[in-house]
Write a structure and sequence with these properties.
This protein has one domain (7-133): Umud Fragment, subunit A, CATH 2.10.109. Strands 1, 2, 3, 4, 5, 6, 7 and 8 form an 8-stranded antiparallel sheet that branches. The protein is built from 3 helices and 8 strands. The chain is of the alpha+beta class and 161 residues long. The protein is 32% helix and 30% strand. The radius of gyration is 16 Å and the shape is globular.
Amino acid sequence: MSVAANKDDGVVLAEAIRLVNEGVEVIFPVNGRSMRPFIEGGRDSVLLVKPQDVKPLDVVLACVGENHYVVHRIISVDGERVTLMGDGNLQGREFCECKEIYAKVTHVVSPNGKRHALNTPFIHFVQKMWVKVLPLRKYLLKLYRVYMRLRNFKKEVHDAH
């Protein structure tokens, strides 16, 4: 899930990171599909906080290349090397060092402003299962896409009347 698409976005991202470093919680919009089905790019935002005690299964904002920032899940930490993977990805992984993790995501924020915590026991269970069912993700994501199309179609029909 990408967070900066152009120069102006990069300026906003730099300011968000600065505020997070100062201990301020920042709600930041995201785009892309790599965190489906849990975070929908272009619709949801994420609540960023200072990245303390990050561990596998946490969702973080990290720099994985020169000025390439992603919001992805930590798969593993080996010393200073961190492996990340988007929930909507079937095989792609990114790598960074611990010092390149700039924020931790604690909540997904819906368009209506409602915050959905990522640290509840139920969400932890779902996240753990999602990581374990990697071979089945292809089919689960396909079902999710069908569900989203049907939901959007139903909304369009409803809005037309």
